[in-house]
């Protein structure tokens, strides 16, 4: 049985449609499904919906629709969802583990009583879910990090971490979409651009996506960087409900 939703005000032109009190894949799947349904319905006055872990931020034009009326419409759409069948894109992201950007790899391995190769095998062997985009443009919060790799964030954040840095923070993983300060622990780097403001679709990741990391060596990482700069797509993307073929299982 789906959790009973609640409506929370978020200013004079938005509200939160919240489902339950826990962070879980089934709850997040319903949030993403609701967001997709609302975007398909094109409700008058609805400006934007933003999925989060267990809630949906609903932004609207108060001159075109009253918040209470829109909340009722959103609830009606939610009630019509029925059982949610997860349909997710699957992305394969190349990752250069260690090195200058992945500066915390060796220390994290030592903390966990593992070798660096074991950390890499655990991290790259998992499938991650994009629970939400936030903090910075295109920054994806990833669930699915193996429990053995759960690690607290740094007590003192670093002032500059480059875009593409692949991090661990608590029970989550991430890919830095832009350069900036961070208290996450970083174990690798990808040449893939999670955020490209000049692209037609500037955001690579979407809530509900499934992600795997593929280890690459320094030579391949530099080759992929150059190919991306030349306009080539270097991340493998399998469409929803399809199995990744040979070309999709590697960066292209």
Automatic annotation (TrEMBL):
Residues 5-205 form the Carboxyltransferase domain. It is an enzyme of class 3 (hydrolase). It holds the Pfam family CT_C_D. GO terms for molecular function: 5-oxoprolinase (ATP-hydrolyzing) activity; ATP binding. Gene3D superfamilies: 3.30.1360.40, Cyclophilin-like. Its EC number is 3.5.2.9. Keywords: ATP-binding, Hydrolase, Nucleotide-binding. This is 5-oxoprolinase subunit PxpB. It comes from Paenirhodobacter populi. The gene is pxpB.
């Amino acid at each position: 049985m789906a959790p009973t939703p609640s409506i929370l005000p978020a200013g004079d032109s938005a509200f939160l449609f919240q489902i339950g009190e826990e962070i879980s894949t089934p709850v997040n799947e319903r949030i993403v499904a609701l967001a997709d349904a609302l975007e398909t319905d094109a409700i008058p006055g609805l400006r934007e919906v933003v999925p989060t872990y267990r809630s949906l931020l609903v932004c609207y034009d108060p001159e075109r629709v009253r918040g209470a009326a829109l909340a009722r419409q959103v609830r009606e759409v939610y009630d019509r969802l029925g059982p949610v069948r997860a349909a997710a894109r699957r992305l394969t992201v190349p990752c250069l583990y260690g090195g200058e950007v992945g500066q915390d790899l060796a220390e994290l391995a030592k903390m966990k009583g593992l070798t660096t190769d074991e950390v890499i095998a655990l991290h790259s062997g998992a499938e991650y879910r994009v629970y939400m985009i936030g903090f910075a443009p295109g920054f994806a919060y990833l669930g699915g990090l193996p429990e053995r790799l759960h690690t607290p964030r740094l007590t003192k954040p670093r002032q500059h971490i480059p875009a593409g840095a692949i991090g661990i923070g608590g029970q989550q993983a991430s890919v830095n979409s832009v350069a900036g300060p961070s208290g996450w622990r970083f174990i690798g780097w990808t040449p893939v651009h999670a955020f490209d403001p000049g692209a037609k679709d500037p955001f690579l990741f979407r809530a509900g996506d499934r992600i795997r990391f593929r280890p690459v060596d320094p030579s391949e990482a530099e080759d992929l960087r150059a190919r991306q700069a030349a306009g080539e797509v270097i991340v493998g993307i399998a469409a929803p409900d399809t199995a990744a073929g040979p070309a999709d299982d590697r960066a292209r």
